[in-house]
Amino acid sequence: MKKRLGIDIDGTVTRPETILPYMNKDFGLSLSLEDIVDYDLSLLVDIPASEFAQWWLNIEAKVYEESPLAEHVKDVLLEWEKLHELYFISARSTHLLAITENWFKKEGLPFHHIELTGSHNKVELIKNYQLDLFIEDKHDNAVIVHQECKIPVLLFDTPYNQQPLPQGVIRIYHWFEAKAWVKRWIQQG
């Protein structure tokens, strides 16, 4: 039976350290993924949050155009495309939809629908599309989606999402693990 799988983009489909080379270059830092223990990256630079936000606005399109794929994501998504409907829901700003769709096409990634929310609030879209499962990297999003939508959420492990998880939010470490989990979940029906 086909399931509707909801998938975040940044930090799940893309590598979670995607922004670090830009931060390191522009702010004279030498950060690695292990240094990112909070989702709020503005805490890592010695400038006001408003200046960091403006810096991000200036480079976000370039970052999204050049984002590297997470390891094995393409293999899993190509297989899932035949079995499920793939809905990508991201907090990216809505004006970046063409850039995002072009990146998916350039990378050869399948999708049935892409929705950019411009915020981290994904619950209403998940409910509207009647998604059966969601894949995320942001801890509080994962917890809220699970609690509000009553669906399982796979949370990709990163240094910035190490808070405890409620039952129903499952920590995973790579895309092949996500594939295996989804297969077991469907078989258990």
In total, how many beta strands?
6
By CATH reckoning, the class of the largest domain would read Alpha Beta
Q: What do we call the CATH homologous superfamily of the largest domain? A: HAD superfamily/HAD-like
Radius of gyration from CA coordinates? 16 Å
Mean pLDDT score: 97
Helix content: 40-55%
Tell me about the largest β-sheet: 6 strands, parallel
- SSE series: EHHHEHEHEHEEH
Placed side by side, the strands forming the largest sheet appear as: 3-2-1-4-5-6
CATH architecture of the largest domain: 3-Layer(aba) Sandwich
Structural class: alpha/beta
- Shape estimate: globular
Strand content: 5-15%
- Low-confidence stretches are none
The number of helical elements comes to 7
* Terminal-residue CA separation: 9 Å
Enzyme class: hydrolase
GO molecular function: hydrolase activity
InterPro entries: 5_3-deoxyribonucleotidase-like (IPR052419), HAD-like_sf (IPR036412), HAD_sf (IPR023214), Nucleotidase_putative (IPR009206)
Keywords: Hydrolase
Structural commentary:
The protein is of the alpha/beta class and 189 residues long. It folds into two domains: 4-15 and 70-188, 3-Layer(aba) Sandwich (Rossmann fold), CATH 3.40.50.1000; 20-66, no CATH class. Helix content is 42%, strand content 14%. The chain has seven helices and six strands. A six-stranded parallel sheet has the order 3-2-1-4-5-6, sandwiched between helices. Helix 6 links the parallel strand 4 and strand 5. Helix 2 (49-66) runs parallel beside helix 4 (97-107). The mean pLDDT is 97.
